[in-house]
Amino acid sequence: MATVADALPPAYAPEADAIEAGRRLFAHEARFMLGCVSIAQLPPPDVPEIAFAGRSNVGKSSLVNALTGRKTLARTSNTPGRTQEINFFELDERLRLVDMPGYGFAKAPRTAVEGWTELIRDYIRGRAMLRLVCLLIDARHGPKESDRALMELMDQAGVAYQTVLTKSDKPKARELDRIDAMLAQAVAKRAAAAPRAIRTSAVKGQGLDILRARLADIALPG
């Protein structure tokens, strides 16, 4: 019997050597560089950057920690809106991971939310070394209007993005397939988007090796 998953585009399946390259890169120590509240504070654009974007409380900081094997590299919280600046982490001087503030609902003053939302837009539109945005989507809920608005911005800016389902250990298998199919449909006609999401769980470790391989392909040779 055909399932929802059967109708999806092929999932990204890196070769064993790509998995190993990702493992080696992320085995290096990642270090916090700086947090920025304005474009003027951004570090020199001399290393490829991969940004993590998504709604507030989608799990950006948790995913950065899980990828790097560090529990406290990026500060996590159950309170939406805790990350209020763009945080840069350097990995082996070959790649920068960029943890961006969440958008959508946040327990913060409206003016603050508007300020960091505009900072996200300016960074995406004008950052020369931004090679990929990982657009994180909660696997329990699927894409929201605010996610689609960011997709539109990245399409207009010509910035490549990879959708990533977070908390994929939470839904039942059939529901996860349904959300995955919904997301694939949302990006089907978007030229800047990868055709299929990578399913991850920061808690269970699901999909981290696949995502590491995807990101390592962007790093400077080493």
From TrEMBL:
GO biological process annotation, one example: division septum assembly
PROSITE patterns: G_ENGB
Plastid keyword on record: no
Keyword tRNA-binding: no
InterPro entries: G_ENGB_dom, GTP-bd, GTP-bd_ribosome_bio_YsxC, P-loop_NTPase
Gene3D superfamilies listed in its UniProt record: P-loop containing nucleotide triphosphate hydrolases
Molecular function terms from GO: GTP binding; metal ion binding
Keyword list, A-Z: Cell cycle, Cell division, GTP-binding, Magnesium, Metal-binding, Nucleotide-binding, Septation
Known cofactor(s): Mg(2+)
Start and end residues of each EngB-type G domain: 46-221
Summary of the function given for this chain in its UniProt record: Necessary for normal cell division and for the maintenance of normal septation.
Family: Belongs to the TRAFAC class TrmE-Era-EngA-EngB-Septin-like GTPase superfamily. EngB GTPase family.
NCBIfam families the record matches: GTPase_YsxC (TIGR03598)
Protein name: Probable GTP-binding protein EngB
Source organism of the structure: Marivibrio halodurans
Gene: engB
